[in-house]
Amino acid sequence: MEKFEGERKNKKKKWLNFLKFHVLLIHQSTKHSHKQLHTCKNLKTHLL
Known about the structure:
Number of domains: 1
Radius of gyration: 14 Å
Strand content: under 5%
Shape: elongated
Mean pLDDT: 74
Structural class: mainly alpha
Number of strands: 0
Order of helices and strands: HH
Distance between the termini: 26 Å
């Protein structure tokens, strides 16, 4: 049971890193409008 729990946390961690990476990628590759930037900030605070 504990092994499963550990694996689940690990998957979540990987998923968060994956999301963070893509958020950064999007930030770098596009010129954000103010609204999009606000949405990204909300997304970050929601995830953390």
